């Protein structure tokens, strides 16, 4: 119940979104720094990346699984050229690079269906993670497609706390009663995280004259309503 409940909250608040090599230490200069501003300019690229979700809910120690479709809506390409797909995960509070995954793609017909699995860092210090997908041609330095998404990193403590309050959440007659101290502490901690990330400003190489913002005010209101009703 807790997973479904928290998933509904994060989806509602954040929705408008070869061989694998992973690294947690690559510098920002080694990665194309495309931010959620991508969402507004994705149609400007010759190819488009579509995801099965715009917001992913991931528990601690579980991998992030992306179902990706690459297509050419303007029919500029008959097939996908040899290219490299890059996945970047960032902390929205600090712009810190959390993880990077690169995957080489062979030439294939469009639309192309691709599955990518990435491991989240062992110690995630943020409930929300910003993800960036970029597709770059191997023949020339050209960005073929880009897409942004959001990951809700479900820390075990938060899930267990909400699950413990399952009876309370399902029975409106109990909503006037105070929650246990642990639940209140988690709610307050979550509120502090959200307040620190409102608004989030990250550098953008797509539209350098217009910084990217993401507002999490709705997240805070919904979460506080569910836990503190």
Walk me through what this model shows:
With 229 residues, the chain is of the alpha+beta class. The protein is built from six helices and 13 strands. It has one domain: Immunoglobulin-like, CATH 2.60.40. Helix 1 runs antiparallel to helix 6 and helix 5 runs antiparallel to helix 6. The protein is elongated, with a radius of gyration of 19 Å.
Topology (elements, then pairings):
Layout: H1 2-14, E1 20-23, H2 38-41, E2 48-51, E3 55-59, E4 64-71, E5 79-80, E6 83-90, E7 97-105, E8 108-109, E9 112-118, E10 128-137, E11 143-154, H3 156-164, H4 166-170, H5 181-196, E12 200-202, E13 212-214, H6 217-228
Parallel strand pairs: 3-11
Antiparallel strand pairs: 1-7, 2-4, 4-9, 5-8, 6-7, 6-10, 10-11, 12-13
Helix pairs in contact: 1-6, 5-6
Please, how many helices?
Answer: 6
Widest sheet: strand order? Answer: 1-7-6-10-11-3
- CATH T-level topology: Immunoglobulin-like
Biggest beta sheet summary: 6 strands, mixed
The count of DSSP E runs of length 2 or more, i.e. the number of strands, is 13
Rg is 19 Å
Order of helices and strands: HEHEEEEEEEEEEHHHEEH
The count of domains is: 1
CATH class: Mainly Beta
């Amino acid at each position: 119940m807790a997973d479904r409940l928290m998933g509904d909250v994060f989806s509602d608040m954040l929705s408008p979104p070869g061989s694998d090599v992973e690294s947690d230490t690559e510098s920002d200069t080694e990665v194309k720094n495309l931010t959620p501003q991508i969402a507004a300019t994705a149609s400007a690229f010759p190819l488009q990346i579509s995801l099965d979700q715009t917001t992913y809910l991931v528990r601690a120690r579980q991998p992030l699984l992306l179902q990706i479709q690459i297509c050419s809506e303007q029919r500029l390409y008959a097939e996908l050229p040899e290219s490299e797909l890059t996945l970047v995960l960032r902390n929205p509070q600090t712009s810190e690079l959390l993880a990077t995954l690169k995957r080489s793609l062979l030439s294939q017909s469009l639309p192309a269906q691709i599955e990518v699995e990435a491991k989240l860092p062992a110690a995630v210090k943020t409930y929300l993670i910003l993800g960036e997908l970029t597709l770059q041609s191997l023949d020339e330095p050209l960005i073929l497609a880009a897409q942004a998404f959001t990951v809700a990193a479900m820390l075990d403590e938060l899930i267990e706390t909400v699950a413990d309050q399952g009876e309370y959440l399902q029975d409106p007659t109990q909503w006037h009663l105070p929650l246990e101290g642990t639940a209140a502490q988690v709610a307050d901690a979550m509120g502090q995280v959200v307040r620190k990330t409102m608004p989030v400003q990250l550098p953008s190489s797509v539209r350098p004259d217009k910084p990217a913002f993401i507002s999490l005010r709705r997240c805070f209101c919904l979460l506080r309503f569910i836990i503190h009703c």
